[in-house]
């Protein structure tokens, strides 16, 4: 089970993540019972059409095929448009999509091979497409002010000069990114490489993306968007399906978790209906494979973060039903406490493996600069609704941090909010977590990262090296309602 020791290390004690009301939701360990807000959320979900959990099969987003291939590049075309899709069984919901798919189609790219993606904006508002976790020049980063006007298109060139990793694309148009992502503008971008191929990890049909998100629906199955509303987004979706099930063979599977929620933090465990938790092998994080597999009873995933993990279902008897459970609110346990179910079938031949060594992480150069970043936002009841980094809201005309190209720096990032969790995401660079609250990070978060979770009062020390591209890039809270409220800054690499 999730022990008190694990809870303390994760910052999940009651004092750290108590009730936070309207500004971020009630982040509590789930232990049954309902608050008034939870009861309201239950009623809203029921009104939208009662969904019996684990009755809808998991679907996998389609893989986007290139319309052209050359010796060095693959060419894709994507149209951002409105669509109507079935989310709650027997109903239709209007969503924003890439190519009509909710979530968007998956691009499977290769390290060292360029992907050229033309994005056509067929919507009636500006958009910007950011490859989250990508190492790209400013012109192809998809920044918040670098938007595509309605009726226009933009071609992004991703050279993919980085290790294989689970990345994702999403809208980043400032002040609109929160609602655009909530309504569907996100999709997986899975980057493979030769080193990963040689390991023998589960692949093909046994390598499955799991794009997590939550939503609130009204009585007509319309998606309800309210800024910073964590409490009422209590319908949990995986690949756009509510509380789905997946029939699995008795063999190893690789799953790629992407938290595409605006605000919800997941604390996930594989359970069997008893008090037992079944450890999984985490093999990857935001920036790619870990140095070695990390066996873990829980997986903590804040918005924007990714986790790759392997489960060997051959260890379970056919007919076993395993639930991917969530142990963190806000919301009633019967809704947000379950994510999806795995139904185990007969054992099948399996030549895949999880080797003891996965990747060689780059050496940590000696840092020459140290900086401090403080995250906070107006607390519930103050009457104000803004979010800050180092006491300032975002200003597109201001450079907050100037960095020498090639420098290695240590950034100390602190969550100064008293009741509200945040996380911290950097464009362009992957970092390493050196410390969390003065202690070494767990092995599961010791790899390459671009997003780090901080519960109230937590402090993380990060090391970053800026040796790829010059220009102006953002850093921000990736609980993207918070970034839309101003928790974002700009760094200039010169």
Short structural summary:
With 494 residues, the chain is mainly beta. It has 3 domains: 4-55 and 201-346, Immunoglobulin-like; 68-197, Cupredoxins -  blue copper proteins (Immunoglobulin-like, Sandwich), CATH 2.60.40; 369-493, Immunoglobulin-like (Sandwich).
What does it look like?
The protein is built from 6 helices and 32 strands. The chain is mainly beta. The protein has helices spanning 4-10, 36-47, 177-182, 194-197, 333-336, 480-484; strands at 68-69, 73-85, 93-98, 104-110, 114-121, 129-132, 153-158, 165-171, 186-192, 207-215, 235-238, 241-242, 245-250, 252-259, 266-271, 277-278, 280-285, 288-296, 299-301, 306-312, 321-326, 338-347, 369-377, 387-389, 401-403, 408-415, 422-426, 431-436, 451-454, 459-465, 471-476, 488-493. The strands form 6 sheets. The protein has a 7-stranded mixed sheet, with no helix packed on it. Strands 13, 15, 16, 19, 21 and 22 form a 6-stranded mixed sheet that branches. The termini are far apart. It has 3 domains: 4-55 and 201-346, Immunoglobulin-like, CATH 2.60.40; 68-197, Immunoglobulin-like (Sandwich); 369-493, Cupredoxins -  blue copper proteins (Immunoglobulin-like), CATH 2.60.40.420.
């Amino acid at each position: 089970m999730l022990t008190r020791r694990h809870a303390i290390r994760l910052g999940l004690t009651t004092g750290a993540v108590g009730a936070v009301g309207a500004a971020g939701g009630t982040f509590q360990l789930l232990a049954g019972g309902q608050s008034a807000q939870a009861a309201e959320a239950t009623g809203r979900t029921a009104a939208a059409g009662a969904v019996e959990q684990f009755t809808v099969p998991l679907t996998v987003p389609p893989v986007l095929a290139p319309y052209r291939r050359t010796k060095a590049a693959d060419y894709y075309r994507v149209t951002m448009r409105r669509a109507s899709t079935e989310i709650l069984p027997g109903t239709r919901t209007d969503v924003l999509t890439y190519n009509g798919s909710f979530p968007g189609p998956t691009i499977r790219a290769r390290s060292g091979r360029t992907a050229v993606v033309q994005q056509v904006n067929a919507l009636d508002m500006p958009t910007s497409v950011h490859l989250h976790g990508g190492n790209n020049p400013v012109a192809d980063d998809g920044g918040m002010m670098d938007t595509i006007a309605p009726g226009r298109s933009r071609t992004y060139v991703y050279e993919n000069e980085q290790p294989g990793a689970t990345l994702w694309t999403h809208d980043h148009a400032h002040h609109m990114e929160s609602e655009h992502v909530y309504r569907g503008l996100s999709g997986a971008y899975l980057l493979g490489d030769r080193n990963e191929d040689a390991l023998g990890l589960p692949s093909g049909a046994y390598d499955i993306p799991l794009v997590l998100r939550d939503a609130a629906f009204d009585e007509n199955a319309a998606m309800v968007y309210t800024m910073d509303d964590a409490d009422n987004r209590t319908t949990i979706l995986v690949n756009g399906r509510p509380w789905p099930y997946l029939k699995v063979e008795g063999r190893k599977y690789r799953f790629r978790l992407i938290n595409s929620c605006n605000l919800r933090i997941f604390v996930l465990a594989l359970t069997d209906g008893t008090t037992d938790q079944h450890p999984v092998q985490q093999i990857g994080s935001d920036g790619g494979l870990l140095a070695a597999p990390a066996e873990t009873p829980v997986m903590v995933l804040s918005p924007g973060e990714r986790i790759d993990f392997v489960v060997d279902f051959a260890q379970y008897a056919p007919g076993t039903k395993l639930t991917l459970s969530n142990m963190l609110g806000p919301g009633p346990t019967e809704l947000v406490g379950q994510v999806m179910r795995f139904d185990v079938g007969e054992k099948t031949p399996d030549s895949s493996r999880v080797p003891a060594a996965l990747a060689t992480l780059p050496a940590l150069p000696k840092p020459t600069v140290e900086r401090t970043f403080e995250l906070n936002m107006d607390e519930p009841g103050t009457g104000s609704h803004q979010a800050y980094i180092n006491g300032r809201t975002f200003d597109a005309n201001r450079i907050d941090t100037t960095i020498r190209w090639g420098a290695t720096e240590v950034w100390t990032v602190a969550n100064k909010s008293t009741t509200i969790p945040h996380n911290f995401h950097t464009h362009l660079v992957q970092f390493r977590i050196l410390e969390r609250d003065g202690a070494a990070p767990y092995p599961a978060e010791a790899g390459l990262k671009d997003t780090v979770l901080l519960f109230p009062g937590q402090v993380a020390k990060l090391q970053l090296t800026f040796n790829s591209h010059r220009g102006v890039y953002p850093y921000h809270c990736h609980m993207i309602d918070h970034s839309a409220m101003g928790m974002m800054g700009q760094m200039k690499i010169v």
